[in-house]
Each structure stands twice: as structure tokens, then as C-alpha cells.
């Protein structure tokens, strides 16, 4: 899993750099073995097609944790 991008430290309304949060707090318990801080999700497409807002997505398998 890629580590968190610097965009998490940008004030979304102004675009100004907002400081070390939320990465500072997340780093306390979401540190990745290879370095960096991980949060979020990763999915794989098994069958190409279209999905619409509001449609149900079924998770059929979990991969190993990368933390």
C-alpha cells in the first residue's frame, strides 16, 4: 500500500499547507513496515464495467494486511 500523500496536509478550501495533521496522529498507529503512514483502501477490478452512485459493491475476499 502506498504511504499517505502530502495532499492530506492541505487545507481543502484554500489550498494552503495546513501542517502535520492528520499524518502525525495516524503515524502513532498506522505505520507501514516499509516506512510511511498508511490509511485508506485498495481494491482490484475483477470484471470491467460501469458502476453508478448508490449501487452496492460486494467484498468477496480480503488480502493480507500491509501494516
TrEMBL record:
Q: InterPro entries in the record, alphabetically?
A: MoCF_Sase_C
Composition bias (Polar residues) maps to 1-11
What are the residue boundaries of the MOSC domain, all occurrences included? 1-60
Location of region: Disordered: 1-23
Q: What is this protein called?
A: MOSC domain-containing protein
Organism of origin is Nonomuraea salmonea
Amino acid at each position: 500500500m502506498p504511504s499517505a500523500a502530502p495532499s492530506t496536509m492541505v487545507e481543502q478550501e484554500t489550498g494552503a499547507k495546513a501542517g502535520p495533521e492528520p499524518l502525525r496522529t495516524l503515524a502513532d498507529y498506522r505505520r507501514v513496515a516499509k516506512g510511511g503512514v498508511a490509511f485508506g483502501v485498495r481494491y482490484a477490478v475483477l470484471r470491467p464495467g460501469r458502476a453508478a452512485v448508490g449501487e452496492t459493491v460486494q467484498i468477496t475476499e480480503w488480502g493480507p494486511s500491509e501494516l
